[in-house]
TrEMBL record, chain A:
PANTHER family registered for this protein in UniProt: D,D-DIPEPTIDE TRANSPORT ATP-BINDING PROTEIN DDPF-RELATED, TRANSPORT ATP-BINDING PROTEIN
Cross-referenced NCBIfam families: oligo_HPY
Similarity section: Belongs to the ABC transporter superfamily.
Name of this protein: Peptide/nickel transport system ATP-binding protein
TrEMBL record, chain B:
UniProt similarity note: Belongs to the binding-protein-dependent transport system permease family.
Region (Disordered): 471-491
Entry GO terms, CC: plasma membrane
Species in which this protein is naturally found: Halolamina salifodinae
InterPro entries noted in UniProt: BP-dependent_transpt_permease, MetI-like, MetI-like_sf, OppC_N
Predominant location: membrane
PROSITE patterns: ABC_TM1 (PS50928)
The protein's name: Peptide/nickel transport system permease protein
Length: 450, 491
């Protein structure tokens, strides 16, 4: 529809692949945010080794809790954030290293629809100016053609031509999101990152916007990366879904299969949190303990190991009962939280002279967790020793000790992506390895399975 | 498909075409603007001709010089056209015969009445332009703008209902008119009365001689001094013995205080505006750059601004103006330029700090990301997507700071460090009248002092009004900020 130069000229020939072929191939992508400190400080590992392919014409969903890195992933793909490592291949080009004309070509072909329609439109510009701006930046056609294109786009997203000279203030949230979509589509991109495009909207408007997005995809052959935390929306719109946790993709596969038969423990937990419309239905919810670990300091083994309900136990701990084992995990979680907490100078001083601080003492924690329990020696010894270490204020050493004594493969090794299901689904969990039981065999039942 | 597939629409027209389609309101506007401009056309022409054209003319190649000469002749002729607001239209200089009849003044009016008429005429003219400006906005908004509503409409409406801001606007407008029309407003002129009194004469009726005498202004001034207790005094709204009317009385040197004040307003306004253009320009450039790039750029500017702010501004300006006093820079505009530069280069950190917050805030908005995502250039992003949100705050703080600069300049002149004599400056009048405050010559210090207070209050009120207009939720700078900005001069 435009008089763009042939893409071959710009070097991004990979964009012209046929529908169904791989448009983007993300490999071990990492995006770290440097800490604000001038010296030292751990970077925030927002995206920590993500690999997947995006096929032309599909909608790939990215779901996960707040802070799991899904938005950063989307922003890295459109070069709003600089990748720390890994690559994003389009044909033979690496998006993370494009510059000059190639970067401009990528910017033209990769667009974003933002989450908050209140914040994504400049209030001091008319709708026409807002939608026209990408066209102006890329010198698209003549000014009169640009105006005509904007009017055409307004109609395409369900607004009227007369809205050209209105200001964003005069529109509702849903209409503003339509304007944002029109702006993203102005340059006829191949790839659009939809960053929670409906989560700020009323439910009734959400459906309209989703249908608009799907209609536009059919009409223009767009490829979507759909970031969301609302699972029902993802199920409605996406062809494939990637489930993210702490910067990692835990499970990736076709939407229906993943929702019907989730393989990864984290997916299972996430899906079991979906509310059931039938109030009489008895569901065995999998509630996760604690909060996600800090992305500054992710666990060494599996990212989900700190909260996983079906974590593999170390060898020789079969006789330990379930609740004791959970007490051990809670103890580790508590130590981890303590080691992360910044202590003020006065708190350190109080600790030093033995005054009470706002931190419960280690003995209190241990007492609460382990008294009235029949603890086998194999567990008791490491716990006591860790408590000793923690009492001296060395939580890190205590954690190391517990990990060494009571840690399993989940704590030590990062899991591989295992193929699961029938349609090229992958899940990152040690339990998929032959020597362990499948997550579905040990955990509560979830989704469509019996 | 190519872009040509789109029907090229013809409905977007330039402003000129829109006016051609519906010329009525624009013609009505023009019918008022043209005469309003025509009556002062001579003044504008003489302003243009007062620029150093001869330097340009001599640089031209020969065949063009004749043309330039002809143009200069036309220009001079235009510059000599009579204008409505010139002193000769309503002349207040003359002498009074023993019969009480005034000779030389327009229509034989008394100089006080003639002067008052001229002042009223000038202010009516000034406020007519203000009304025309408002009318232009209305005509454009209602007849020629595509958008039925724009965010600026709401701001204008909020400002219209802000009585404190409107009062500020009125005061500042009156001050600007005083500065712009200073030569026409004074009962006499700076050249005749203040800078070259021995090159000008006045006529008066000498009762002893029984005839009209001519006397140098300088000699006349010596007999119309205001020297407090036991000395001569020419107070406000009074005549001296030479039939000259002094609306604000005279200075201890016998010069006319009102003429001095009007010319001083020009100096103050010039220094204030120039220094704020410098400070505001630096501040807004840095604010946009630091908010957009953050990180090291921000840190660098923080350090630079902190180093400047750690200097005691007034002391530093004193020192620097003393150091620079021997140079050519110090002679530009009687030292006004050097003061403006110093206030500008030491004043930007405060303004930058004030607009950095809003700039950082707007830099976090998603439309900045949107602009980055389709590859907008940083400079354009800053100008289009950030500047409109920052410039309002800049206006607020600039108007608050302007009062501080005026106080600062007055303070420096009071100390004898500011504007070189004999160029009028308000602070010097305050200083000159200081010994006479408790005497009948109280007017010398008090009137300029009160004028400073009124003008500074006006700028603060205007800033308040703009703030409430652009951002009704914001509560920036209540109390403390206003005070510190107003007291920025510290004098």
């Amino acid at each position: 529809m435009s008089q763009q130069p042939e893409r071959g000229d710009t070097g991004l020939a990979g964009l012209d692949c046929a529908p169904g072929e791989t448009l983007l191939s993300v490999r071990d992508l990492r995006t770290y945010y440097e800490s604000g400190d001038l010296i030292g400080g751990q970077p925030v590992k927002a995206v920590d080794g993500v690999s997947f392919d995006v096929k032309k014409g599909e909608t790939i969903g990215v779901v996960g809790e707040s802070g799991c890195g899904k938005t950063t992933l989307g922003r890295t793909l459109v070069r709003l954030e600089a990748a720390t490592g890994g690559e994003v291949r389009v044909g033979s080009d690496d998006v993370t290293e494009l510059s000059g004309e190639d970067l401009k070509a990528w910017r033209r072909n990769a667009q974003v629809v933002f989450q908050d329609p209140e914040s994504s439109l400049n209030d001091r510009m008319t709708i026409g100016e807002i939608i026209r701006e990408p066209l102006d930046v890329h010198d698209w056609g003549t000014p009169a053609e640009r105006r005509a294109r904007v009017r055409d786009l307004l109609e395409k997203v369900g607004l009227q031509e007369e809205h050209y000279y209105r200001y964003p203030h005069q529109f509702s949230g849903g209409q503003r999101q339509r304007i944002g979509i029109a702006r993203a589509l102005a340059l006829e991109p191949e790839f659009v990152v939809l960053d929670e495009p409906v989560s700020a909207l009323d439910v009734s408007v959400q459906a309209q916007i989703l249908n608009l997005l799907m209609d536009l995809q059919d009409e223009l052959g767009l490829t979507y990366l759909f970031i969301a935390h609302d699972l029902s929306v993802v199920r409605h719109i996406c062809d494939r879904v990637a489930v993210m946790y702490l910067g990692n993709v835990m499970e990736l596969g076709p939407t229906d299969e993943l929702f019907e038969d989730p393989a990864n423990p984290y997916t299972r937990a996430l899906l079991s949190a979906v509310p059931e419309p039938d109030p009489t239905a008895e569901i065995d919810r999998m509630t996760l303990r604690g909060t996600p670990p800090s992305p500054r300091d992710p666990p060494e083994g599996c990212a989900f190991s700190t909260r996983c309900p079906v974590k593999i136990r170390p060898d020789g701990s079969d006789e330990v009962d379930e609740s004791t084992w959970e007490a051990v995990e809670v103890f580790r979680e508590t130590l981890r939280a303590r080691s992360r907490t910044e202590r003020s100078l006065s708190e350190r001083a109080r600790e030093l002279i033995g005054l009470e601080t706002r931190f419960a003492t280690v003995d209190e924690v241990v007492g609460e967790l382990f008294t009235d329990r029949d603890i086998p020696v194999s567990v008791k010894e490491p716990v006591d020793q860790a408590a000793d270490l923690a009492r001296e204020g060395d939580e890190d050493a205590a954690l190391e000790h517990l990990k060494g004594e009571l840690g399993s493969v989940c704590d030590h090794e990062s899991p591989e992506d295992h193929a699961v299901g029938t349609e090229g689904r992958e899940s990152r969990c040690h339990r998929h390895a032959a020597e362990y039981e499948e997550p579905s065999a040990v955990g509560p039942s979830v989704g469509g399975e019996d | 498909m190519s872009a040509v597939d789109y029907p090229v629409d013809e409905d977007e027209q330039t402003l000129l075409e829109r006016i051609q389609d519906e010329p009525g309101p624009a013609l009505k506007l023009l019918a008022v603007v043209v005469p309003l401009f025509a009556v002062e056309f001579g003044a504008v022409a003489s302003l243009v001709m007062s620029l150093p054209w001869s330097a340009v003319g001599s640089a031209l190649p020969g065949f063009l010089q004749g043309l330039a000469g002809a143009l200069a002749g036309v220009g001079d002729a235009l510059a000599n056209l009579p204008t409505l607001l010139s002193r000769s239209v309503i002349d207040n200089s003359g002498y009074q015969l023993p019969s009480g009849e005034w000779v030389g003044t327009t229509l034989g009016l008394s100089p006080a009445v003639a002067w008052l008429l001229r002042v009223l005429l000038v202010y009516a003219y000034g406020f007519a332009w203000m009304a025309v400006g408002w009318w232009v906005y209305l005509v454009y908004r209602d007849n020629y703008r595509y958008a039925d509503w724009a965010p600026v409409d709401d701001m204008v409406n909020r400002f219209r209902n802000h009585s404190w801001g409107l009062l500020g606007l009125a005061i500042i407008f009156a001050f600007v008119v005083l500065a712009l029309f200073a030569p026409a407003l004074g009962p006499t002129t700076v050249e005749a009365n203040i800078s070259d009194p021995y090159l000008h004469t006045v006529e008066y009726f000498d009762e002893e001689a029984g005839s009209v005498q001519e006397i140098y202004v300088g000699d006349a001034n010596r007999d119309s001094q205001s020297r407090g207790q036991g000395g001569d005094n020419v107070g406000p709204l009074s005549y001296d013995q030479f039939g000259r009317f002094h609306p604000f009385g005279t200075l201890p040197s016998g010069k006319d205080l009102f003429t001095f004040m009007a010319a001083g307003a020009r100096v103050s306004l010039f220094i204030g505006v120039l220094s704020l253009l410098i400070a505001g320009g630096i501040a807004v450039t840095f604010a946009l750059a630091t908010a957009y790039y953050k990180g090291l750029v921000d840190l660098g500017v923080v350090i630079a601004s902190d180093s400047i702010q750690s200097l005691p501004q007034l002391l530093f300006i004193m020192l620097a103006s003393f150091v620079l006093s021997g140079t050519w820079l110090a002679n530009l505009y009687s030292g006004g330029v050097v003061l403006a530069l110093l206030f500008g280069f030491t004043g930007w950190p405060g303004l930058w700090r004030a607009v950095r917050g809003p700039a950082l805030q707007v830099s976090e908005r998603e439309w900045i990301d949107a602009a980055k995502s389709f590859g907008q250039r940083p400079s354009v992003t800053m100008r289009k997507h950030m500047l409109p949100y920052v410039v309002g705050y800049l206006l607020i703080y600039a108007s608050l700071t302007l009062g501080g600069v005026i106080i600062g300049v007055a303070g420096l002149s009071f100390l004898g460090l500011g504007i070189n004599a004999p160029t009028p400056e308000w602070g010097r009048a305050v200083s000159a009248g200081q010994p006479y405050v408790p005497t009948q010559s109280w007017h010398i210090s008090l009137i300029p002092g009160i004028m400073v207070v009124i003008v500074v209050t006006g700028f603060n009120a205007l800033g308040d009004g703009i703030r409430d207009a652009i951002d009704p939720q914001s509560d920036v700078g209540t109390g403390q900020q206003d005070e510190s900005a107003a007291a920025g001069g510290g004098a």
